[in-house]
């Protein structure tokens, strides 16, 4: 028995060594410049997760090396990082499924959401998931969610007004990010499976509690051993890696706890929906009802098994609430820092409101929200400037040549306009840098300036991404399925908040940092132990 074990262990070790050696001697990127590597074991990709504010390192490397450079992952594995528009268009749009997610990304997602669309490892599986999910995210479908979004934002406004009344004051400092996370959770619960979390009502919901600070509890400042451990995954067969995820590391234990709770709730709801469908109810618009109806079709290409169905819900909860809530938080913070722009935005909303009243309607129509130019500009600019997801990781499925819009200088001083990569090469689209390229956004790219979207000075020769030419929702076949959902939701919430409240910086002027916690979120310097936090002074508009 023990001989067998030894044999197994040594063959795994040999296989590992061979694979690793093949990688290490694989020098195709060695001539590309990039930051120094201090530790062979750790490489320098994870230095990003220790930078104080997201972008500190990214922008520095961009200054030094241009739009493409070489990084190193754990165990000497080279990574091509790029913010080059043409390279990104090639990788994300033109190559279809030829750049897939890395093993590490997939296995992490597997542990966080289960076998969901975000996990879907192959073209076959992903295109099936996406085809089934797409109808739930079509423009007409999402339009029907607007009243629900407005109901939630109205509830949020009411809560703040009650709070002001209760304190007998016309202004208060509030942790706006926490309130927005609750609103976004209520919204995704209703939209995804017609479920009331009651997060804004402060009900003691178990799922709500699980999501509080999930990212910063688990992903902030990854320990070194974890970096090496996950670095090994690249060299192992995927099936083995899928077993490894059962190791109780900090982040997975935290995510697993959340997932267990979410899955239990989802399972009950899937059963309930299937039951309702049997009884002929075909009207529900929530995502889960759409999936259950698709599953009832004859076409096997339109079916999800029960596990996949439940996983989609965890995926939507994960991808669809803190992202939007954080983006709106950053938007309000920028409004607080730019009071003149904030006032323009408020005037725009108030003007539209008078049209609504004159018409005798109760609330804004979708077209009215979409026609608010300052509102649209503020959203685009915040998505660009405070992109919540800052890096992506992809792996070339076969040998390829990546074209560049901006030539780069190699170690030998020559300029190259394309980068040949071999199958297995990891490439990392750098969203943070792409969103700040002066060649696209103008010389003031490092300034939050919504007016740039109104002046139409943005260079859109190379079309990229899902919305406003920013990369914040990723791009291509695996781009964010929820981008339009998120935009409509943000419109609804921001218009309501700005119509009802003024936002300003708290008197002690807290320093806000953009922490790298899997997703980028706000914390107050010196108060990091409080988790994600963005305090703003909120004053009722009278
Ligand atoms: C401001 C808000 C949001 C941002 C910045 C954002 C960003 C992203 C990004 C960058 C990706 C690609 C991830 C990757 O390639 O590894 C993605 C994928 C995804 N997002 Fe979003 N997202 C947002 C809101 C939402 C919402 C509201 C939903 C759902 C209602 C959602 C659902 C998804 C799903 C399901 C995927 C996976 C798509 C696929 O693999 O086919 N997201 N999102
Ligand atoms: C993906 O790679 C294969 C093999 O090299 C190639 O035939 C195919 O055209 C590529 N697909 C796209 C969309 O570029
Ligand atoms: C989907 O359909 C399959 C059979 O076609 C069925 O076994 C499964 O329970 C269905 N799942 C749901 C959640 O309706
Ligand atoms: C769905 C899944 O794989 N969950 C696992 C994630 O990791 C923890 C421990 O780290 C396991 O207990 C879970 O089963």
TrEMBL record:
Involved pathway(s): Secondary metabolite biosynthesis
One Pfam family cited in the UniProt record for this chain: p450
InterPro entries xref list: Cyt_P450, Cyt_P450_CS, Cyt_P450_E_grp-I, Cyt_P450_sf, Cytochrome_P450_monoxygenase
Superkingdom of source: Eukaryota
Residue numbers binding heme: 480
Record's keyword terms, sorted: Heme, Iron, Metal-binding, Monooxygenase, Oxidoreductase
Keyword Heme: yes
MF terms in GO: heme binding; iron ion binding; monooxygenase activity; oxidoreductase activity, acting on paired donors, with incorporation or reduction of molecular oxygen
Cofactor(s) the protein requires to work: heme
Family per record: Belongs to the cytochrome P450 family.
Protein name: Cytochrome P450
Species of provenance: Phlebiopsis gigantea (strain 11061_1 CR5-6)
């Amino acid at each position: 028995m023990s001989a067998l074990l030894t044999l197994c262990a040594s063959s795994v070790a040999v296989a590992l060594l061979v694979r690793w050696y093949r990688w290490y001697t694989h020098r195709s990127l060695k001539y590309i410049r990039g930051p120094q590597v201090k530790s062979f074991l750790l490489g320098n990709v994870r230095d990003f997760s220790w930078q104080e504010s997201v972008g500190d390192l990214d922008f520095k490397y961009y200054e030094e090396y241009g739009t493409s450079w070489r990084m190193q992952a754990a165990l000497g594995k080279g990574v091509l990082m790029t913010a080059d528009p043409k390279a990104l268009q090639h990788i994300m749009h033109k190559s279809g499924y030829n750049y897939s997610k890395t093993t590490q990304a997939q296995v992490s997602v597997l542990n966080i959401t289960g076998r969901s669309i975000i996990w879907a490892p192959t073209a076959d599986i992903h295109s099936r998931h996406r085809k089934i999910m797409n109808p739930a995210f079509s423009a007409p479908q999402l339009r029907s969610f607007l009243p629900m979004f407005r109901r939630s934002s109205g509830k949020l406004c009411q809560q703040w007004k009650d709070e002001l009344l209760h304190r007998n004051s016309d202004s208060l400092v509030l942790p706006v990010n926490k309130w927005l996370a609750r609103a976004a959770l209520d919204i995704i619960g209703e939209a995804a499976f017609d479920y009331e979390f009651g997060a804004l009502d402060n009900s003691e919901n178990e799922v709500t509690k699980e999501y509080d600070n999930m990212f910063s509890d688990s992903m902030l400042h990854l320990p070194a051993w974890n970096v090496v451990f996950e670095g090994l995954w690249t060299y192992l067969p995927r099936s083995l890696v899928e077993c490894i995820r059962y190791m109780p590391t900090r982040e997975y234990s935290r995510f697993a706890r959340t997932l267990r709770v979410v899955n239990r709730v989802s399972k009950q709801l899937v059963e309930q929906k299937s039951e309702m469908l049997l009884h002929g109810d075909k009207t529900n618009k929530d995502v889960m009802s759409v999936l259950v109806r698709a599953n009832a079709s004859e076409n096997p290409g339109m079916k999800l098994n029960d596990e996949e169905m439940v996983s989609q819900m965890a995926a939507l909860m994960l991808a669809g609430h803190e992202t939007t809530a954080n983006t709106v938080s950053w938007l309000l913070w920028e409004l607080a820092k730019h009071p003149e722009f904030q006032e323009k935005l408020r005037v725009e909303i108030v003007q539209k409101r008078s049209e609504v009243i004159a018409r005798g309607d109760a609330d804004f129509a979708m077209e009215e929200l979409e026609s608010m130019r300052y509102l649209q500009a503020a959203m685009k600019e915040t998505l660009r400037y405070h992109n919540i997801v800052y890096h992506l990781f992809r792996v070339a499925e076969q040998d390829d040549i990546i074209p560049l819009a901006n030539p780069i200088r190699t170690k030998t001083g020559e300029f190259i306009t394309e980068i040949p990569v071999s199958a297995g090469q990891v490439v990392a689209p750098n969203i943070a840098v792409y969103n700040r390229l002066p060649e696209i956004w103008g010389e003031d790219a490092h300034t939050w300036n919504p007016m740039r979207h109104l002046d139409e000075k943005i260079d859109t020769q190379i079309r990229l991404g899902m919305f406003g030419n920013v990369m914040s929702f990723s791009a291509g076949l695996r781009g964010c399925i929820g981008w339009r959902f998120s935009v409509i939701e943000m419109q609804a919430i921001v218009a309501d908040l700005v119509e009802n409240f003024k936002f300003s910086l708290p008197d002690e002027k807290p320093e806000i940092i953009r922490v790298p916690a899997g997703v980028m979120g706000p914390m107050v310097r010196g108060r990091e132990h409080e988790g994600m936090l963005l305090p703003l002074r909120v004053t009722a508009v009278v």
